[in-house]
Amino acid sequence: MPSDVPLSPDAPFPPDALLSVRDLRIAFDGVEVVRGLSFDVRPREALAIVGESGAGKSLTARALLGMLPRGATRNGTIEPDLAAHRGRRISLVPQDALSALSPVHPVGDQLAAAVRSVARVSRKEARARAVAALDRVGIPDAARKARAYPHEYSGGMRQRAVIAMATVNEPDIVVADEPTTALDEERRDQVLRVLAEQREAVGAALVLVTHDMDVVRDHADRVLVMYAGRLTELGPAEEVLARPRAPYTAGLLASLPQHAPPGRRLPALRGTPPAPGSLPPGCAFTPRCPLAADACHTVEPEPQEVEKRLVACHRWPELPHPATELFHE
Amino acid sequence: MSDALLDVRDLVVRYGDTTAVDHVSFTLAPGETLALNGPSGCGKSSTAQAVLQLRRPDAGEVVFEGRELTTLTERELRPVRPRMQPVFQDPYGSLSPRHRIGDAVAEPLRIQGRRPTPDQVAELLDRVGLDPSYGDRRPHELSGGQCQRAGIARALASEPRLLVLDEPVSSLDPSVRAGVLNLLADLQDDLGLGYLFICHDRAVVRHFADRVVEMREGRVISG
Ligand code: SF4
What we know:
Chain A is of the alpha/beta class. Chain A has helices at 57-65, 97-100, 107-118, 123-136, 142-145, 155-167, 185-202, 213-219, 237-242, 247-254, and strands at 19-28, 31-41, 46-50, 72-79, 90-93, 173-177, 205-209, 222-227, 230-236, 304-306, 309-311.
């Protein structure tokens, strides 16, 4: 567990963390959906959180923002408490650009209001920062566009405006929750490029919730793979995708068409994730895992340090290479 | 091609002043998957709507099983519609939230004036890998992947020859997506269905389709 892990710069828990999450637990009506999750966000890094629907990745992101849904109880620590400064030190790029903007106010006014909500500056100064933020994300004729309403923006411009909104106060962390799920590839890459530029400009880290492995490969430094509310694997994105060390990560990758062997059937992960509250004993992945053995049915594996990663699996040394082969029929 | 299941010639769809589909032509053989690929707004979904005659094209021909559809009246189309069925992106949106899954699956048969038996519904659910007990549930009790399977069962009810699949896996997790794509491949092998497959994900298209038609701004740019 975290306290035993040596604090080398390469370690999964580095000494220079921007934000440390320890033993995070999120429950609804006593049923835990996030079950003891520990990870760090490093300065300026892009950390992707992946997993199937229901794995708890969105909830984890919301916990960082202090925006858990009603009825959720949270345990564990998130330090420092950036959520107390939401909008200034941590901000959100939501999935739906329209929901982030009010339809009844000009975009520039909304940005200026965001500036004034965290900084004591004159209206004029706030206005100037708003226009500059729109200009930075590549909105042409920003001074004029600042006076326009969201519906007068094209879809792509609206996405840019939302990114301007999330970065205008130069936060430490931008959380993006499936920001590109509804977009085609061209628009997706465009949005992520603008987001990367803005992060770079203001020096913010990114926590990116996604189910798109292409996005992870192209836009993340590290990846946290979640299953049934727990960490399955955490490590450098490129290395995890190239050589997964946990069977679940391998299964996720195997089901991608770009990794599929010729022929028409995709190696699918059999079955579905367990419902929270009716988890199997031991490792939650047991019913779907081709590598499951006796120990898996009784003891839930804890994350352990493997090379530069954390892996939660009793049998990781026995994974074949390539591990995706486990899932071929 | 006289043995084509679907032969689309010079299809044009306009919305006011904009031409969404601009002289698009392609053919599709029985048992074949033809993908329409391109960014949003390229006209692929408008093409699908026009093929299904859900939106009547402004010009061009849609020849399905040897019959030209664009000149048929609604009434004349009635016996044709069961043979070409849509499957949409949003699995929840395409099933009425108030109806049980079994009723939704049987609906195309009822529309044809047939009386589906519980056995028929159970068989359809079984075909798509759903336990027949799901027939008594409502859409919100199903996962996204299960809902999409129910949508496919519903499309199969009227024994179609052509499925028009409009982004059928775009809202699904990769692992669930693989299962639905495998199901579609199995159904095609078993039933010899033709698929018009609308999808913006190039990796999925490359894996799944026999041929790809690339569209941009309403036009075919390759394929
Ligand atoms: S602990 Fe066992 S069941 Fe869980 S992923 Fe590892 S091998 Fe599979």
